[in-house]
């Protein structure tokens, strides 16, 4: 896999759940996926955001928009682009995004279990 990997943020609405956003990062085995309660525009404004790691998604979701969960929900692309993995350890990952909305340096810090703090650092 090259230095530049793809990412997408999908606006995800399920009938039984509130609106949320899924950040999907291209990896070797699919799309590592993290759930946010805030849209991507607020991720850069609010310097600290909580991200919950959820199931890895199939690579097809990089471009997919439409119905999901047998019609019980829908997804729409809210942002996309590329990212570089600059640092990666069990406790912290540093990423550089080049997207339509996410731009600049971010770090993902492991808090506990599947919970992370996703922090905007700088342009």
If you had to describe this structure to a student in words, what would you say it looks like?
With 123 residues, this protein is mostly beta strands. It is 5% helix and 65% strand. The model has no long low-confidence stretch (mean pLDDT 91). It has one helix spanning 40-45; strands spanning 5-14, 20-27, 30-36, 48-57, 66-68, 73-88, 92-99, 103-112, 115-122. It is globular and about 40 Å long. It has one helix and nine strands, in the order βββαββββββ. The longest helix is centred in the middle third of the chain and has 6 residues, at 40-45. The chain has one domain (5-122). A hairpin with a 3-residue loop joins strand 6 and strand 7 (92-99).
- What percentage of amino acids are in beta strands? over 45%
Helix content: under 10%
Enumerate the strands of the largest sheet in spatial order, edge to edge or round the barrel: 1-2-3-4-9-8-7-6
- So what's the overall shape? globular
Enumerate the spans where pLDDT stays under 50 for 5 or more consecutive residues.
none
Q: Estimate the mean pLDDT confidence.
A: 91
Secondary-structure element order, N to C: EEEHEEEEEE
Largest sheet: 8 strands, antiparallel, barrel
Number of separate strands = 9
| Assembly form of the protein | single chain
- Would you tell me the structural class of the helices and strands? mainly beta
